[in-house]
Amino acid sequence: MFLGRWRLFTAVLFAASSTVAVGQIDVSPQHVEAWLKRELQAAAAIPAWPGFSIRWRSEDPLTLSPKDIDALRSEVAGKPEHPRRHELEAAERMLRTGAPYVMRFELFSTPEGAWRFNSTYVDAKTFTDVTLTNGTAWKLSPMAIELFGDAPSADRRRSLAGERYVFVPMLASLLYGSLDRAAFSKLEIGDLRIDGSRWSATASRRSGTPLVLGYEGRWDPQAGRGFVERYTIVRNPSAPTFEGTGERFEEWEFHPEPGVWAAKRAVLTKPGGEVWRVHVFEGFAPLPAGGLDAVFAAPSPGGADVVRGPIPTNVEVGDHARAVVTRMNEQGQLTEAPLPGARESARWGWNTVGLSLLALLSFGVFCAVIARLRSRRQA
């Protein structure tokens, strides 16, 4: 049913646009299709431009009802490290201030696939950084360092590599109009329609689960490319409640260095049009002194991280290669203890899992992944 409404909407949109598109050059469908396929391929990769990091933020308005907040208080009561505690603190802060909850992100990456993903909880004044390269793997938060050695286990590497499914979708919203959703689900572009400088298309499977995504936008002959202005989940039998959710992409801007187009905002909406999250592109930043070698270097107590600055001497260090955790006692002495697998992994990993869930919840396409993550969290 939603598929029919979406087609009617695009037809009305084109009818309206054709009345104001006087003098616009008609665009070749082949040009639009070729551009969409190039963007689709690029959207699935880890963004990387040598010499620059990428910065953006997410703003969440308060969407929980008073009843939801009360239930959340009961869920986390007496559990200071519960993965949803950040969510409760954010909701209570928004109730007091009326301001959205803000998270800031920065990605350092290489075309070869090495990366460092920094996440800053602005209001909570805390952060979580994750780094994965061929030569090192580690995590950093204000009072903890987690080291995985030069050759982490296959399971651990897969776990760390899963962070890309947090930052790639957010950046793909701002850089590629969420075309990564179609690439991730192996969908094909079809039903391409063009009217003047306006275009619309669907992405779907020829067989299997009939997932259908809708895209629409404009073609800019001066820029020699198109711009996605709207993305919608048209049909998703695996999660029908997500049908009608989508994003709109506002104020596409060209950044001369490194020569990239990006939307200023990606506005995420519910089926009724209610805004529940906004991604804001903050720009590209030159690399700090020492370049990526310094950015990827593993932190140490009492040292200085090139991005975060001084690291406390009493920070805890979990060394997975040696299976020990090092702490400083009240007398300033370092002590070592075994690093328990399941218990310690849960403690160290909750901040990252919480952030991963928060980011992944943006995208109905990934509902099956979310379900698996939730089942692990509750186990």
Explain what this protein looks like in three dimensions.
The chain has one domain. Helix content is 32%, strand content 33%. It has ten helices and 18 strands. The protein is globular, with a radius of gyration of 22 Å.
Strand content: 25-35%
Euclidean distance between termini CA atoms: 37 Å
Order of helices and strands: HHEHHEEEEEHHHEEEEEEEHEEEEEHH
Mean pLDDT across all amino acids: 82
Q: Based on DSSP secondary structure assignment, what is the total number of beta strands?
A: 18
Q: What is the helical fraction, as a range of percent?
A: 25-40%
Secondary-structure topology with pairs:
Elements (H helix, E strand, L loop, with lengths): L1 H17 L10 H15 L8 E9 L5 H11 L8 H13 L3 E9 L5 E7 L4 E7 L4 E5 L2 E4 L6 H8 L2 H13 L3 H5 L3 E8 L2 E7 L7 E9 L4 E11 L10 E10 L4 E10 L5 E12 L4 H6 L7 E2 L3 E2 L5 E4 L4 E5 L5 E5 L2 H20 L6 H12 L1
Helix pairs in contact: 2-6, 3-4, 6-9
